[in-house]
Amino acid sequence: MTAYEKPNIGIQDVQQLLKNLYENQVEDVTVVSGGNLSSVFFFKHNGKAFVIRFSDLSGAYERDQFVSHLLSSQGVPFPRSFGKGKYGNLTYSISERLEGNMLADLPDEQRSHLLPDLVKVISKMNHINVSSTAGFGWLDASGNGTYDTWEQYIVSFYQEDHTGSFWENWTELFHTTFLEKDVFDECYARLMAFSKFNGPHRHFVHNDCHAWNLLSDGRKITGIIDANCVYGDFLIDISIAESAITGHDVVQAFRDYQEQMGIAIPNFDERLLGARYYKGLDGMRFYAKMGRRDDYDYLRNYLLNLAH
């Protein structure tokens, strides 16, 4: 299995598409570096800043409008969505561009000052009202989870059959890359053992809130972008965000803040382990698929050395 390559679309093609959509009232179309699965461009229309993303993956962006409304209507700084469409065999999605730059681009000292705001913003997102929805795992286009339980979602997420998705034929990675089946199986067994602690808890989970998906103007967190969202235990987002600001106990900062807010977190240690194995296993196979050996080695050693 070869490494996945996101769509290659030229800036002239993007300019022409946008001119057709906005009757030539488009300017400052620029390519955005980064992004593992989408090709991304910034542009302006009537003085306002927007983002257009392109993907060749099945079901791309189908949840964008629901998630955008769910979060922005409850005060979470998440981009408003302005719809999606087709361009050849690609799907595109247009949203507003929020102020700020990626948190990952800020120096460590400046990031440190943002820890209290990061904790507040992510906690607010995790505890929005989702009572009008049901289910666990991936959100469907109507905003409901696609599984009745968290455990069902976990089993499905790591099953072999993912036809038409990014993970189609992913088990071939055991034979064609450095992904080690014995290590994967050991971590999967640990995940299933701890998932029973995560299972009773249902919140909105961004599922990808690392430093490249958090925006800041240097004074505060100005936005959260590119949700790969699920309904599940909010400790998943804490397990991801803990690497966003180095040199601090980010997990403890979340615990302290949520205690101040009166949010009880029973079985915290077990749930955090379940969250780390859930994201870590996915990270292992992702790094294998993308050919990122150093990242893979670091993560597999980290997971194997976790208490269990």
From TrEMBL:
User: What molecular function does GO assign, one term?
Assistant: kinase activity
Identify the InterPro entries for this entry: AGP_Transferase, Aminoglycoside_PTrfase, Kinase-like_dom_sf
Q: Where is the Aminoglycoside phosphotransferase domain?
A: 29-260
Pfam families xref list:
APH
Among its keywords, does the record have Transferase?
yes
- Keywords from the named record: Kinase, Transferase
Q: Please give the coiled-coil regions recorded for this protein.
A: none
Entry keyword annotation includes Repeat = no
Name of the protein: Hygromycin-B 4-O-kinase
Task: List the lineage, top down.
Answer: Bacteria, Bacillati, Bacillota, Bacilli, Bacillales
